[in-house]
Task: inverse folding
């Protein structure tokens, strides 16, 4: 699926404030974990939430979410759980000018961001919007199965589609089910942002740049080809 | 563009139920407040299935919709949870449902952040995805969740939660045509369900106006009036608030299909679809109806549909 708006910005962020868990969260997570035979998670330690993360980005001078441009569409994506049940999309809906739709895509492991882009592209075309922002997020202490050895980190990758600024390329995004994992391809680490983390270093490019991800749980493969501006 | 359409709704209601009194007692709600839930909000019993995984409950809702040819047409399975996580990584509830149903080619993911209104957004998203994925495809939208302890069982001052689930078959054309979807997100309530007392009061005041407003937004968008609405399939919260919304919008006296509070509780995003299913025999060709939901956070949504078939001319019986 070709995004109707060009990619005009991309950046990575990994500095987010942390705070103690609120008491209710421990109870909530305990109930969730019980169903999967997990011990009650420790309430100790500092964490952040996805809502806190987007508030941080919004307050950061120079960040695309800090700007007062009308942004009709906001898409968030995450593979892991939130530290608390927070509402990052409503936070941005209320704070950014012009938001008509804001939502999150998850439950698809490392392919969550690719699916977010696919859904976002469908909305951007239907809404004929001028500017959209997609934020991929990971947290360093999600609730996981005991045997899971995934490496996590708290960080975000922000993509800006449309709006002002020279185009960096056009996105062709696809998510397919039933694909086999490419042999030798390391897992995306951390799951949501891993595959995208070094993309800003490669753009603009003269050749196509391809980002891929694979979710072994669903056997879904995500692919995003960034076609240089000026070439279709 | 061919319109997004609901082609079928399947429902799963656990056979077991529990008096709301027991749930409220377990959660430390004092007697005076418990009376409100019973006598004013209209809650009676909640359906629960404590030993059963969520994915099985969702799959049971979907099974009646899927014969072999329908199953082969499913391009996406979208779960629209209220809380944005339903399992520890790398578990994936939506993928597990797809597997249970034998939907080997469908891409499974969750769409969230509108809380209990997320399922209405998912129907809209399903239609848009189908518009770009070639002819003949359909999407399965799933709604409903397990009741967690504490805030997962009771939303203070609003609802007692149940575990009914719904599956919605979405296509382009045919079935019940989506006329429009209107949604509003209110500022200042992002800490829900842990709002301060002041914010809770402010939300109670804002809620009626905002829900009425989003229904008006939907009607205005397609040039219809309140009296053109034949049915409202609502989310099962505070019954009294629905009566106030009905008055504010000017909806007909008998169009809001309440009743779920007494028999099943507030089943997260599944409520409007369970109400649709419960009242499906009342739908006549051309009937216009609203699916309405409000989510923590706070997002309120009204989706307007027209039931399949030609509407009789005005005055015809």
Result:
């Amino acid at each position: 699926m070709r995004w109707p708006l060009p990619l005009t910005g991309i950046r990575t962020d990994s500095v987010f404030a942390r705070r103690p868990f609120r008491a209710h969260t421990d109870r909530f997570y305990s109930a969730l974990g019980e169903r999967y035979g997990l011990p009650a998670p420790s309430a100790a330690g500092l964490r952040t939430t996805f809502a806190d993360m987007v508030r941080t980005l919004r307050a950061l001078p120079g960040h695309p979410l800090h700007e007062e441009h009308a942004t009709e569409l906001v898409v968030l994506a995450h593979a892991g759980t939130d530290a608390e049940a927070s509402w990052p999309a409503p936070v941005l809906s209320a704070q950014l000018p012009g938001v008509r739709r804001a939502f999150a895509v998850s439950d698809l492991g490392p392919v969550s961001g690719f699916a977010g882009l696919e859904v976002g592209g469908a909305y951007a075309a239907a809404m004929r919007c001028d500017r959209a922002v997609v934020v991929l997020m990971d947290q360093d202490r999600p609730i996981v199965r005991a045997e899971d050895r995934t490496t996590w980190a708290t960080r975000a990758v922000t993509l800006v589609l449309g709006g002002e600024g020279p185009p960096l390329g056009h996105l062709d995004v696809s998510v397919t089910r039933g694909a086999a994992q490419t042999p030798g391809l390391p897992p995306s680490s951390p799951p949501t942002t891993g595959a995208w983390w070094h993309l800003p270093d490669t753009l603009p490019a003269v050749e196509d740049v391809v980002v891929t991800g694979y979710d072994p749980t669903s056997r879904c493969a995500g692919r995003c080809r960034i076609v240089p501006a000026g070439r279709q | 563009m061919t319109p997004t359409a609901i082609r079928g709704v399947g429902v799963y209601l656990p056979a077991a139920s529990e008096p709301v009194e027991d749930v409220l007692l377990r959660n430390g709600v004092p007697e005076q407040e418990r009376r409100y839930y019973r006598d004013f909000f209209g809650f009676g019993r909640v359906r629960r299935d404590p030993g059963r995984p969520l994915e099985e409950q969702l799959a049971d809702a979907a099974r009646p919709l899927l014969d072999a040819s329908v199953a082969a047409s499913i391009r996406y399975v979208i779960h629209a949870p209220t809380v944005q996580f339903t399992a520890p990584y790398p578990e994936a509830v939506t993928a597990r449902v797809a597997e249970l149903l034998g939907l080997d080619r469908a891409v499974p993911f969750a769409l969230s952040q509108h809380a209990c209104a997320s399922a209405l957004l998912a129907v809209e998203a399903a239609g848009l995805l189908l518009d770009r994925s070639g002819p003949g495809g359909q999407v399965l939208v799933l709604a409903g969740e397990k009741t967690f302890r504490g805030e997962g069982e009771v939303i203070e001052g609003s609802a007692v939660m149940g575990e009914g689930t719904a599956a919605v078959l979405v296509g382009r054309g045919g079935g019940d045509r989506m006329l429009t979807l209107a949604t509003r997100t209110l500022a200042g309530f992002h800490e829900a369900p842990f709002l301060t007392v002041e914010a809770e009061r402010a939300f109670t005041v804002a809620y009626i106006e905002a829900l009425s407003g989003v229904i008006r937004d939907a009607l205005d968008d397609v040039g219809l009036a309140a009296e053109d609405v034949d049915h409202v399939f609502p989310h099962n919260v505070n019954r009294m608030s629905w009566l106030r919304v009905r008055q504010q919008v000017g909806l007909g006296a008998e169009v809001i299909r309440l009743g779920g509070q007494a028999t099943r509780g507030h089943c997260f995003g599944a409520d409007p679809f369970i109400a649709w299913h419960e009242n499906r025999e009342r739908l006549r060709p051309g009937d216009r109806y609203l699916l309405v939901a409000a989510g923590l956070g706070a997002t309120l949504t009204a989706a307007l549909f027209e039931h399949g078939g030609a509407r009789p001319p005005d005055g015809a019986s």
